[in-house]
Amino acid sequence: MGNVLEVFDVSKSFGGIHALEGCSLQVEQGSITGLIGPNGSGKTTLFNAITGYERIDAGSIHLPGEIIVTKDRPIAPDKVFRTGLGRTFQLTRIFPRLSVIENMHVATQRKGLGSFFSRWSTGQEQRRAVELLHFVGLDDLQEHLAGELSYGQRKLLEFALILIADPKIILLDEPAGGVNPSMINHIGERIRVLNQEQGITFLIVEHNMEFVMGICDKITVFHRGTNIAEGSPGEVRNNPAVLEAYLGD
Length: 249
Ligand code: ADP
Description:
Blueprint: E1 3-14, E2 17-28, E3 32-36, H1 43-50, E4 58-63, E5 67-69, H2 77-82, E6 85-87, H3 100-110, H4 116-122, H5 124-136, H6 151-163, E7 169-173, H7 181-198, E8 201-205, H8 209-215, E9 218-223, E10 226-231, H9 233-237, H10 240-248
Parallel strand pairs: 3-8, 3-9, 6-7, 7-8
Antiparallel strand pairs: 1-2, 1-4, 4-5, 9-10
Helix pairs in contact: 3-5, 3-6, 4-5, 5-6
Residues 14, 17, 19, 37, 39-45 line the site of adenosine-5'-diphosphate.
Protein name: ABC transporter ATP-binding protein
Domain ABC transporter: 5-249
Organism: Tengunoibacter tsumagoiensis
């Protein structure tokens, strides 16, 4: 299968800091691809570049739908979203004073369905929202305020919010960060189901090595703003350059 997302030779500086320096990345359609690297290696900057939150200085990013982003052809985040690319953030972006189901309602609206209100009131979209909450395991908490959810539950809600848009590819920013081990297993298992049953591609930034190694087909390793290695979890784990990157910093 082809690649659903490709990054070629991308660079990005902040003042004198080279956050990305000629980095490349390929995400094969249907894969669960991991992106790892020491702190400050440029992973978040790359996520921001791919999702239109940062302009790049050089190189190109090939998004679904044959959209090519360059320095001179930037793209707005909502346009990226409409190519079928969904993203979670390290700090979840939900409305804490709305209930869980109300958050789903708002996300449905943002999906940009023309006749949205009638669809929600006729129940079609609402049923889908409830189905997705059931899928992530939050259906019992529909009426709870999102701000009262645990950190792990908020991550699940954010996951459900992204699924409303029927994404082709989901970028996950530290899905296992700060959540307890049983929640980590639950999140990992949901990712596998979405990947295997619905063919959703994943690109995952994560520091929890056990989680990354356990779930990803392929891993790209970043160091000082560029990709220094890629391969299966086994290949990456035994790559001396990877060990050095982690130990050296
Ligand atoms: P990672 O996600 O791998 O930890 P980042 O992409 O967050 O790495 O950071 C890469 C480098 O770019 C770091 O040196 C960081 O301090 C710098 N950086 C990232 N964003 C900004 C910004 N908005 N302004 C200045 N420096 C930044």
